[in-house]
Design brief:
The structure holds two protein chains of two kinds. Chain A is α+β, with helices and mostly antiparallel strands. Chain A contains 20 helices and 23 strands. In chain A, helix 14 runs antiparallel to helix 15 and helix 17 crosses helix 20. Chain A is elongated, with a radius of gyration of 33 Å. The chains are: A alpha+beta, B alpha/beta. The interface between A and B is large, with 55 and 52 residues. Chain A: It catalyses: L-glutamyl-tRNA(Gln) + L-glutamine + ATP + H2O = L-glutaminyl-tRNA(Gln) + L-glutamate + ADP + phosphate + H(+).
């Protein structure tokens, strides 16, 4: 695909959780809980008031088409602010400090005062009905070629447990939002820039790590298409595929638009009750419905079922819109007969509605009220097909295709958070902030300064254990040994099912120091750490697993073993060294360095041969 | 160059040019709403006015019809924010108060009743005073007289219980009089204002027939409690269910969203009482919370007061060294009621010696009356009775559910 020819423009909005102790606007800890551990729940409705401008945010309005009662799980680690029962605390200064640090890394300009806003979100994921957010800095650069428009600090939303049940443990964890300009022109560029931004964020050492702690939203448009915002791409590896599929979807929708115009297609919006057509149907879905409504899309035959993206058709788009009314989905004649609907029923349906071979019929089945609502949405989406690509917020599906979520929100969703005072950012404060070394630069330094091989250097720099490594090195442990211990031994431990959480950094460093001082052998590191992880102190673990073995003790042992094998050694000469060494190592492995053993054995053999 | 609110401006900051709307100053800086909706704060010198575009046409406002078949309710606003709206450009919250404004903001109300709306005054609830309670009671009286079948009073929550208790004592009402407020501002999607307002309208058209406070019964949007005005207290600074009945359960419940009203067994029902207004009050009354080590001279500050309510410790005590001062006050004509600073329960000054000394000093036991309610009642009693024995007897009579029974029957 020639992405330049189709006029691809893509931008990123990256949300990364910050690793602060407390939440952004309250003092609860930033820990994620298992929803089964919840200690309470509250149930709430959300509503949107009409502004005096007469505007209601269109995305908010659509979310609230169905008044739904949301349930929120609470925990012994959450408080009143999370369930909107108490005014928020002042903005967490640690979170602001991290965001300013990142802003500095992108060479941005901070705003002199930080004003917190409320961004209306009424899908239930925020108990207050809004997410608090504040712009912190503007206009930065990524490697001179790409532009960061803004960075903002904002609150995480609730985690959805299922359907209308949310968990408030995540609500309020600080996030940084980084918005780039739509300056990327190929899917691969989007991937690379997302990766670079992610690396920059991790370079601070002050962001959360692990699945779900970073989310990428991608804005995509092509020439004649429309801006579409795709939410929640969690895996970096999928990001390019998401862009490719969105380009494909927009091109397909444009092709459908042209075909509809060529066919003189028409959506007249008339809705018919076709319940009686399916009076004796075997279709499980239709059988249990109280009402079935249908509409004719003139000139749409074959287009509703046309694939626009892997596993997605124009019909799927209409179905997404219809689901906003609480129906399970829709059937269209491009996919029928199927799902228990017979050919005969399709024939009668088309005949009843006067649909010709060029036409498609769409039906929905549910209660009267839900069906009427769903039909309006289907007709609305069908009419949009004549325009091509609607501006939308979409969510990523498994594999990289997307589904419709809601219209793009407008400025009407933002209003000031009157409960939070503005926070000044002084020139002195900004100048006192130091930009940390990028992880890529660090990796190069580990090669040059510490003699790590490039693979290990990169692995160490990007590892979550980087602070441990840097501390070990600063405490005099040889970098190569430290890196090997941290990368290899800890991996081995986790493979053996032992969580590294059970091991304190202090213990790991103490073990490395013991080895460096010659009081335990390198070979014993894994066994000692295992013992420590099971609760033993470092000194106990060393003496129990690998009691130190002095040179004198070793000399006695070697002397005895060699004496028992004098004949053998005399016969084999120097070639006896290997087998004898094997016997000795069996006794002392992990308790004294192999090099020392070889020295002592050499001396002893020299006595005989 | 001076900029005014809502002026379109161009901001040049950080090497970029952005369009926005000027909101206001913040010291040397200007607050500007960008087209993204974010407010930013930048040095004023970086903002320049843009050519004024034609002001946006006022949105077409659809007239809202009130259904003549529905019962007529009065909504009396005292400054609560039941129908406030946000200007999304400036972020300012404004309180609107025509019936149409309310119905537009809470459309569900239109299906419950017709509404006549009044706004006798507009104050923060901490600025309410006895004169306003009197005006409020008079307004309610007139509305009922002119055919209102139920009254809703929107009120800030801080002092709602004083106003509700005051109206209770001043007014005998044949229809429900429902005080309602919100603990979360109306400018947020999660505000409790709409649910509380809808439940209050349901209560106002129901079979209830007394003065009540209608607020969330718990932290969920499932039930509103109707609290008897003389037995309710704001027990939390911020929670939705801050209001709780003390020493008894609520006199009714409204389930949401269906709006079913279930009165308690002892609720006063519609039509039980004849309409009657007695809105004299004696404002020269005080309320004093005793604390250990309190300087007895504090009582001297109430010299010349017509009445004083003491919130004493436990069963109704003050330090022994205060008793002579209290005796001095009663001797010079101040009526003194003893209540307790405990959350619930009755005072009893016959158990300990200090209590008996207090009774000897002329203090009247307030039973289980909440100190705030006893204060309001004292104002009403002193405004309507002059003879000492009448005053004493009224204080010890259960007038509006502030007591479980008439204390004088047993004393």
């Amino acid at each position: 695909m020639d992405y330049e020819a189709v006029g691809l423009k893509a931008g990123l909005e990256i949300h990364q959780q910050l690793n602060t102790k407390e939440k952004l606007f309250c003092h609860s800890p930033t820990v994620i809980r298992d929803s089964a551990e919840h200690t309470g729940e509250v149930s709430r409705y959300l509503r949107v008031a009409v502004s005096e401008m007469g505007d209601v945010d269109r995305a908010a309005k659509e979310e609230l088409m169905n008044q739904r009662l949301f349930t929120y799980y609470t925990y012994d680690t959450t408080g009143l602010v999370e369930i909107d029962e108490e005014p928020p605390a002042p903005l967490n200064p640690d979170a602001l400090d991290i965001v300013l640090t990142i802003a500095k890394m992108f060479e941005m300009t901070p705003l002199p005062e930080i004003h917190t806003m409320r961004k209306m979100i009424v899908d239930g994921s925020a108990t207050s009905g809004f997410q608090r957010t504040a712009l912190v800095a503007l206009n930065g650069a990524i490697e001179h070629a790409y532009r960061v428009e803004t960075v903002a600090v904002e609150e995480e939303a609730c985690q959805r447990v299922e359907d209308t049940i949310f968990s408030v443990d995540r609500l309020g964890i600080p996030l940084i939002e980084i918005t780039t300009s739509p300056c990327m022109k190929t899917p691969e560029e989007v991937h690379d820039i997302a990766q670079y931004i992610g690396m920059t964020l991790r370079s601070t050492g002050r962001v959360k790590r692990g699945i779900g702690t970073i989310r990428q939203d991608v804005n995509v448009s092509i020439r004649d298409g429309a801006r579409v915002e795709i939410k929640g791409v969690q895996e970096l590896d999928l990001i390019a595929e998401v862009v490719r599929r969105e380009v494909q979807r927009q091109l397909s929708l444009l092709a459908i638009r042209d075909e509809l115009q060529a066919r003189n297609a028409l959506v007249n919006g008339e809705v018919y009750d076709v319940t009686s057509v399916f009076a004796r149907t075997q279709s499980q879905v239709l059988k249990k419905a109280r009402v079935i409504l249908g509409t004719v899309l003139h000139g749409f035959n074959g287009l509703v079922g046309l694939e626009i993206q892997p596993d997605r058709r124009l019909g799927s788009e209409m179905s997404d819109y219809a689901k906003k009314c609480g129906v399970g989905g829709l059937f269209h004649t491009d996919e029928l007969p199927a799902y228990g609907v017979t050919e005969e029923e399709v024939h009668v349906l088309k005949e009843t509605l006067g649909a010709g071979p060029e036409d498609a019929v769409v039906i929905v089945a549910s209660t009267e009220q839900k069906c009427r609502c769903a039909m309006q949405m289907i007709i609305r989406r069908a009419k949009m097909a004549f325009e091509g690509v609607p501006e939308e917020t979409r969510k990523m599906l498994e594999g990289g295709s997307t589904a419709y979520m809601r219209p793009l929100p407008g400025a009407a969703r933002m209003y000031p958070e009157t409960d939070i005072l503005p926070v000044p950012v002084t020139k002195e404060y900004w100048e006192s902030i130091a930009a940390p070394e990028l992880l890529t630069v660090k990796a190069e330094r580990f090669v040059a300064e510490y003699g790590l091989d490039p693979g290990m250097a990169r692995q160490m720099a990007f590892s979550e254990e980087l602070p441990l490594f840097e501390r070990a090195v600063s405490e005099g442990i040889r970098p190569v040994f430290a890196a090997r211990t941290i990368l290899a031994s800890l991996k081995e431990l986790s493979r053996a099912g032992i969580s590294s959480d059970a091991l304190s950094d202090d213990a790991i460093i103490a073990v490395m120091k013991t080895v460096e001082a010659g009081n335990a052998a390198k070979e014993a590191v894994l066994d000692i750490l295992t013992a420590c992880a099971k609760g033993m102190s470092v000194s106990d673990a060393v003496s129990r697993v690998a009691p130190a073995f002095s040179r004198e003790e070793l000399q006695d042992l070697v002397h005895g073993i060699v004496n028992d094998r004098v004949e053998f050694i005399r016969t084999r000469g120097k070639a006896a060294l290997g087998p004898v060494m094997g016997v000795i190592m069996k006794e002392v492995r992990g308790r004294i360095d192999g090099k020392v053993v070889s020295e002592v054995l050499d001396e002893e053999l020299g006595r005989i041969i | 160059m001076s900029l005014n609110n809502s002026d379109p401006v161009t901001v040049r900051f950080a090497g970029v040019e952005m369009d926005g709307i000027y909101i206001n100053r913040s010291g040397e800086n200007a607050i500007v709403k960008l087209s993204s909706g974010y407010n930013i704060c930048v040095p004023t010198s970086l903002c320049s006015a843009k050519e004024q575009t034609v002001p946006a046409e006022k949105p077409r406002v659809l007239p809202i019809k009130q259904d003549p078949a529905l019962p007529l309710l009065s909504i009396i606003s005292t400054g609560g924010t039941i129908a406030s709206t946000v200007d999304y450009r400036t972020g300012a919250v404004s309180s609107r108060f025509t019936a149409e404004d309310i119905l537009r903001s809470i459309p569900e109300l239109a299906g419950i009743a017709r509404y006549h709306t009044l706004q006798p005054f507009q104050v923060l609830s901490e600025n309410m005073n006895p004169a306003m309670w009197q005006e409020l009671a008079g307004t309610i009286h007139d509305e009922i007289l002119h055919g209102s079948e139920g009254i809703i009073i929107t009120h800030g929550t801080d002092t709602m219980l004083y106003s509700a208790a005051a109206v209770s004592f001043m007014l005998d009402t044949p229809v429900p009089v429902v005080f309602v407020g919100a603990q979360r501002s109306a400018d947020r999607p999660s505000s409790d204002n709409a649910m509380n307002a809808i439940c209050s309208a349901k209560a106002a058209v129901s079979q209830m027939g007394e003065v009540v406070v209608c607020m969330h019964a718990n932290e969920s949007d499932t039930t509103c409690a109707l609290h008897r005005a003389t037995r309710v207290r704001k027990n939390h600074t911020s929670r939705r269910d801050a209001f709780q009945s003390i020493g008894r359960g609520p006199v009714g419940e409204v389930s949401y969203p269906d709006g079913t009203v279930v009165p308690a067994k002892d609720a006063v029902l519609r039509g039980t009482k004849e309409l009657r207004l007695a809105n004299n009050l004696e404002p020269s009354c005080g309320l004093l919370q005793y604390y250990p080590g309190m300087d007895p001279a504090v009582f001297d500050a109430f010299k010349g007061y017509k009445g004083l309510v003491i919130a004493g410790t436990g069963l109704g005590h003050v330090g022994t060294d205060c008793i002579s001062r209290i005796a001095g006050l009663t001797a010079s004509g101040t009526t003194i009621i003893m209540t307790s600073q405990c959350q619930a329960g009755s005072v009893c000054d016959r158990v300990y010696e200090t209590g008996r000394d207090l009774l000897d000093a002329g203090v009247i036991e307030g039973g289980s009356m909440l100190p705030e309610v006893a204060l309001v009642k004292l104002m009403w009693v002193l405004g309507n009775a002059t003879r000492k024995e009448d005053i004493r007897r009224l204080i010890r009579t259960n007038l509006k559910g502030e007591l479980e029974y008439d204390l004088w029957r047993y004393a």
